[in-house]
Amino acid sequence: VQLQASGGGLVQAGGSLRLSCAPSTTFVRIDSMGWYRQAPGKERELVATITGAGTTNIAESVKGRFTIFTDNIKKGVYLQMNSLRPEDTAVYYCNAENVVYYNYGGAPVAAREEWGQGTQVTVSS
């Protein structure tokens, strides 16, 4: 796993959480990063993405409540989640597309995408 997601937890409706996704190795190229989520019994869905140039794409269901941002996309991204609702409950996964990174042996690896391990967000009513 080349991406480490963190920041999930249990929060009451109306509360906030900030998720972080950081590379666990050195990335020399990342075209875009994003957050996806999967609720029980549902398919994984896009939440938000951001490119290295800062262009964002936010799902309609979270627009105005969630913000994706980064200082340096090769160092990771954040998802600020405000005004959380019970329907936001899901496992949140971070994703990076069109990447090049060094593996633990020091060799460069190119991949179309990489996924983090997921972090649980639970919003109680």
Provide a descriptive summary of the structure in words.
This protein has 125 residues and is mostly beta strands. Helices cover 0% and strands 58% of the residues. The mean pLDDT is 95.
Which regions contain 5 or more consecutive residues with pLDDT less than 50? none
The N- to C-terminal Cα distance equals 33 Å
Number of distinct beta strands? 11
Strand content range: over 45%
- Strand count, sense and closure of the main sheet? 7 strands, mixed
Overall geometry comes to elongated
Question: Would you list the SSEs in sequence order as H and E?
Answer: EEEEEEEEEEE
What's the alpha carbon Rg, rounded to whole Å? 14 Å
What is the averaged pLDDT score? 95
State the share of residues found in helices, binned by percent.
Answer: under 10%
- Class per helix and strand makeup: mainly beta
Total number of helical segments?
0
What features would you highlight for this structure?
single chain; mainly beta; 7-stranded mixed sheet; 4-stranded antiparallel sheet; 11 strands; 58% strand
Outline:
The chain is an all-beta fold and 125 residues long.
List the helices and strands and how they pair.
Layout: E1 3-6, E2 9-12, E3 17-23, E4 27-38, E5 45-51, E6 56-58, E7 66-69, E8 77-81, E9 90-102, E10 108-115, E11 119-124
Parallel strand pairs: 2-11
Antiparallel strand pairs: 1-3, 3-8, 4-5, 4-9, 5-6, 7-8, 9-10, 9-11
